[in-house]
Amino acid sequence: MEDNIEIEISETNRGNEQIIINKKHKFNFLFQRKDKLKIYRCTEYKTLNKNKSLIILNDKKEVLKHESLHNHLEKEIDVSISVVKHNIKEEIKKDSIPMDIKPKHILNAVSQEIKLICPEYSTIRSQIIQNINKQFPPNIKSFDDIPIESKYYKTKRNENFMIFKNTDLIIFQSPFQAFLFSNYHINIFAYGTFYAAPKFSYQLFITRTYVGEFNMGNTLITTINFHCDFEQGISNDAKKVFPNINIKYCVWHYKRSLEKQKNILCYHEVKNNNDYNVNNWNYYENIEHLTNNASESYNSYLNNIFPNKPLFYKLIYILKEEENLSYNDYQRRIKGIWKKKQKNI
After folding, report:
1. Parallel, antiparallel, or unpaired for β 225-228 and 187-193?
2. pLDDT of residue 324
């Protein structure tokens, strides 16, 4: 074995074995001899340099032969990128919950460990995310492929998260969320988004409740206000399930509808149309929610944290993360330790 040779294990972008010599040169695996010795050739072998440097290792990764015939510049930066990518990939494989991995955090951790000139995050971000996605379960490609049971259908408190599934609908709700809807349902907000729905599905429909006062217990609530955009399908279905529910359309959407009517004839048509019943839009005592902004803003927030048409299990993971945030916020508020952030002046 030759002295003064430092070896690091890496791999090519295609996953083939690669070794790094003295943090300066890369050698790709060429072939394995009958005596199980492995031959590696310098990566510059197939370039214009036609470099003929090679190295032979035994099964213990000990150097038996090293022909250093490099006729090119040292590639410390290129070498560091390869080492960083490989170490990140190995770290990702160790994590049992790939959805918890933060790409930038893992790059920072690996960079500090290897003590090399590390690449900018933006240059390898896409590859880190690809490696993370490879650790996910096989992606769901159709609604029929969605399993009835899965370890991913559990919240962080190990409670059931998926409560219903049929041929075209799947519902996720934790016991904590069921508790909120049972005790705080004076105002319910509903919003549908196409952006955050997986490719095989049509729409992600989100319902939320507004917690105004605590310790309501099992107080009987006879009036339920259902806030939504002006979508007849939503309001009609809500009335079928809850015949006495009050549908409250977003005032902003109502104003937009009126703005499109530029003459008196259209105005009378709107006024006399039951779909535009003024009682659905005037809030009287319930002036706290003039618009559907509570859902609009949350939908905008989701669009920022979701990729467009996310993987099915990625969607579930983010929904569970949001559920856990709500649970923790609620626990802090009922204990009196909730503090709103102060605005900077």
Report:
1. parallel
2. 92
Amino acid at 122: S
Tokens of 87: 């170490």
For strands 38-42 and 54-57, give the pairing: antiparallel
Separation of alpha carbons 140 and 165, rounded Å: 15
3-class state of residue 99 by DSSP: helix
Smallest Cα–Cα separation from 153: which of 317, 337, 7? 317
State the angle between helix axes of 76-94 and 103-114 in degrees (0 to 180), rounded to the nearest 10: 120
Q: What percent of the chain has pLDDT over 70?
A: 75
CA gap 228, 301 in Å, rounded: 17
Q: What is the CA radius of gyration of the chain?
A: 30
DSSP string, 300-324: HHHHHHSPSS--HHHHHHHHHHHHH
Instruction: Please state the rounded mean pLDDT for residues 305-313.
Output: 83
At which residue do the structure tokens 């519902």 appear?
Answer: 171
Provide the pairing of β-strand 170-172 with 38-42: unpaired
123's CB contacts (< 8 A; 6+ apart) are: 81
Please give the Cα distance from 117 to 83 (Å, whole number).
Answer: 10
The C-alpha atoms of residue 201 and residue 26 are separated, in whole angstroms, by 45
- In this structure, what token pair is assigned to residue 225? 């206000």
**DSSP E strand stretches across the chain:** 7-11, 17-21, 25-32, 38-42, 54-57, 63-67, 162-165, 170-172, 187-193, 204-209, 225-228, 246-249
Among 133-147, 172-186, 283-297, name the one with the lowest average pLDDT.
283-297
The predicted structure's pLDDT at residue 282: 45
Residue the block writes with tokens 């159709």: 142
Q: Which two tokens stand for residue 126?
A: 């896409």
